[in-house]
Write a structure and sequence with these properties.
By secondary structure, this protein is mainly α. The strands form two sheets. Strands 1-2-3 form a three-stranded antiparallel beta sheet, with no helix packed on it. Strands 4-5-6 form a three-stranded antiparallel beta sheet. The chain starts with a strand and ends in a 29-residue tail after the last helix. It is built from 18 helices and six strands. It is about 50% helix and about 5% strand. The chain has three domains: about 50 residues, Single Sheet (Rubrerythrin, domain 2); about 210 residues, Citrate Synthase, domain 1 (Orthogonal Bundle); about 100 residues, Cytochrome P450-Terp, domain 2 (Cytochrome p450-Terp, domain 2), CATH 1.10.230. Helix 6 packs antiparallel against helix 11.
Length: about 425
């Protein structure tokens, strides 16, 4: 086994720490005994250099622009599989054959309705409540409706809960949307695909026939595949940390949804649309980018660059083609011209090249959602539906770890030193 020697220069004490070898990517130094041996903790804001867990689910290489689920490249999965096949892959570790695919899709369809009392739950929200606020509350409440399979140490209970979550998220999302526009919620249909049902529940209305466009169905399916998991990001880490306390999986997933709501995470595609609307026309692109280059302006270029991917986002390559297919089917969106011009400049301007500001998945996904008629307030909700598959898989992996412990990060305390509490009359 490879080791790294840590030496305290103050005392001369040296201790060897083991190096853990991965299947892919960077090796990891096991510093579990650092505090015991030296009396020190490590300091790593944002956990940029810290592996918080071992995982066999997703691998990404930011330098090479690689993303794999269970060893399968994302490009191949997006081309050859549908979203529910990807869900099966994440949950079970292998792609399903035809029979297993049929059984799994049937089991999802069996759970795709939400309890009628939960449906009435939405009546209590204000008419202008944000869909993400409603979704967070609704998912958290699922444990009050489906508490018959909540033994987290029982394999079958975990799998039933996983299928329930994946199945019910589209119905919850659609109910959030319908409430926001004052329409009655719609029940799912057994003859539609997973994403087709979502579109149907969102856009169909009583008394009016709605036909799911196959281009929209496939576009949503691919978007969901691309967003299904992304290693140890903020929301996934939140799910793992919440779940480590032993809380029920619905509460853990709700915590992940709440984290995803942040504009620096799941709200990034929403920010792209707002940015394009702010630019307004092609004539304003140059002046806008000048402000982006001015560090004192406070103007940011949304949908470009990525914290992990250093050269290109592999998901963006796939989604760019889908974006054009959607626009061809649903009509021209003037935002696309702005987006294409921004991309053209960013890929040729030394300022953006040097800073590796290239279009990421959020850049195109927002345009697709907008073209499909999905309002900006629902963008992050779409993200949450897809990411639930990854979240529940990570939760299950964490729960079954041999030496699973409650998460307990440490800190560097920089507050006041110990001091005496003055009496009331002494206080100024």
């Amino acid at each position: 086994m490879t080791t790294i020697t840590f030496k305290d220069d103050a005392t001369g004490k040296a201790v060897q720490m083991p190096v853990l070898e991965p299947t892919h990517g960077q090796a990891v130094v096991d510093i579990g005994k650092l505090a015991k041996e030296f009396g020190y903790f490590t300091y790593d804001p944002g956990f940029m250099s810290t592996a918080s867990c071992q995982s066999a689910i997703t691998y990404l290489d930011g330098d090479k622009g690689e993303l794999m689920y269970r060893g399968y490249p994302i490009e191949q999965l997006a081309e050859q599989c549908n979203f529910l096949e990807v869900c099966y892959l994440l949950l079970y570790g292998e792609l399903p054959n035809a029979e297993k695919k049929r059984i799994f899709e049937t089991s999802i369809a069996r759970h795709d309705r939400i309890h009628e009392n939960l449906r009435r739950f939405f009546h209590g929200f204000n008419y202008d409540a944000h869909p993400m606020a409603m979704m967070t509350a609704a998912v958290s409440s699922l444990s009050a409706f489906y508490h018959d399979r909540l033994n987290i140490h029982d394999y079958e209970h975990r799998m039933v809960t996983a299928r329930r979550l994946i199945a019910k998220l589209p119905a919850i999302a659609a109910a959030c949307y319908k409430h926001s526009i004052g329409d009655p919620s719609i029940y799912p249909r057994e003859d539609l695909s997973y994403t087709g049902n979502l579109l149907y529940m969102m856009f169909s209305r009583p008394g009016k026939h709605y036909e799911v466009n196959p281009v929209a169905d496939r576009a949503m399916d691919i978007l969901f595949t691309l967003h299904a998991d992304h290693e140890q990001n903020a929301s996934t880490s939140t799910v793992r940390l919440a779940g480590s306390s032993g809380t029920n999986p619905y509460a853990a997933i709700a915590a992940g949804i709440a984290c995803l709501w942040g504009p620096a995470h799941g709200g990034a595609n929403e920010a792209v649309i707002k940015m394009l609307d702010q630019i307004g026309s092609l004539s304003n692109v140059e002046s806008f980018l000048s402000k982006v280059k001015d560090k004192n302006s406070g103007v940011r270029l949304m949908g470009f660059g990525h914290r992990v991917y250093k050269n290109f986002d592999p998901r963006a390559k796939i989604i760019k083609d889908i974006c054009h297919q959607v626009l061809d089917a649903f009509g021209h969106d003037p935002r696309l011209e702005l987006a294409m011009r921004l991309e053209e400049i960013a890929l040729s301007d030394p300022y953006f090249i040097e800073r590796k500001l290239y279009p990421n998945v959020d850049f195109y996904s927002g345009i697709i959602y907008s073209a499909l008629g999905i309002p900006v307030s629902m963008f992050t909700v779409m993200f949450a539906i897809a990411r639930t598959a990854g979240w529940i898989t990570h939760w299950m992996e964490m729960i079954t770890e041999k030496d699973q412990k409650i998460g307990r990060p440490r800190q560097l305390y920089v507050g006041e030193a110990r001091r005496r509490v003055p009496s009331l009359i002494e206080r100024k």
